[in-house]
Amino acid sequence: MGELESIRTFLAVAEQHSFSGAARLLGTTPASVTRTIAALEDRLGVQLLLRTTRQVSLTSAGAVYAARVAPLAEGLARATEETRDMQKVTTGSLKVSAPMSLGVKVLPAVLSQFALIHPKTRVAIDLSDRFVDIVEEDYDLAIRISGPPSDKSTIWRKICPVPRALVASPQFLAAYGTPELPEDLTKIECLSYQDQTRTEVWELSKAGATRSIEARGRFSVNNGDFLAALAMAGEGIALLPLFIVEDALKDGRLVQVLDQWSPPEIWLTLYYPPYEHLPLRVATFSDFFETYIRESWGARAAR
């Protein structure tokens, strides 16, 4: 193994305080990490790391060595990235957070086409409907459906608006009646998109008038597809993005209610950590994703 890879391995062990942790970070085995560190210490003639049953820590010589080589390793990695950027070569890995419903319905086609053009870029998708902290959890970017950000430390990029509709099954409306005003929703089962802190409030507007309705009912879920399935089963009215329910609306499993009243606009967005400059692989994936969405969702709207 070359000098640079030995230094990279040593710095990974120092960061993780663990040979196995460094192995996971580098995509290798603990035995390989152990051999690399032993060879590096042998070449230098000093012990860099103290091994105990609980953790691995730096010796005084290891701390000095780490302080000296870390800026060199970072500078070389930066130079490599900048050189690739100049040549428009995307490589390395991307860690992306995305909502469950959007991820399942949209991202397989995005990734398949992206891989044809950028085969050297590995993409790891984490699907979750929770609001992840992309800085603390070390994501390169997050795809979200939301209003304006509350976290001012992140970078926010709008892609397109996401239309929503109040929907219910014909059977539910036949049994409980079709609401004619937003106030009627207070007397009927509502299916709430709920996180762990609060009940969903539906703000509906028409010709300058606004009504706020708490979506109260027996069921609350933090996933749009699950809510759509409950609505189709006749369990209540749900406020959902059209991309989730459009097929059910077309074939009559769901119908739209209070269609003259509009919920607040939400957007499909990309969130980034506070990069000084977007890494090429992040910018390339973002541009590809935005182009795909605009073309596919624009074609869908035209139909």
Strands, helices and their partners?
Blueprint: H1 3-16, H2 19-26, H3 30-44, E1 49-51, E2 56-58, H4 60-86, E3 92-98, H5 100-117, E4 121-127, E5 141-146, E6 155-161, E7 164-168, H6 170-176, E8 190-193, E9 201-206, E10 209-214, E11 220-221, H7 224-232, E12 237-241, H8 242-250, E13 255-257, E14 267-272, H9 280-302
Parallel strand pairs: 3-4, 3-5, 8-11, 8-12
Antiparallel strand pairs: 1-2, 5-14, 6-14, 7-12, 7-13, 9-10
Helix pairs in contact: 1-2, 1-3, 1-4, 2-3
Please give a handful of descriptors for the protein shown.
alpha/beta, 9 helices, 5-stranded mixed β-sheet, 303 residues
**Derived structural class:** alpha/beta
In percent, how helical is the residue content?
A: 40-55%
Estimate the global geometry from the Cα principal axes: elongated
Content of β-strand = 15-25%
Q: What's the alpha carbon Rg, rounded to whole Å?
A: 26 Å
Number of helices: 9
pLDDT averaged over residues = 85
Q: Quaternary state, please?
A: single chain
What is the number of E strands? 14
- First-to-last CA distance: 57 Å
Strand order of the largest sheet: 4-3-5-14-6
Uncertain segments: none
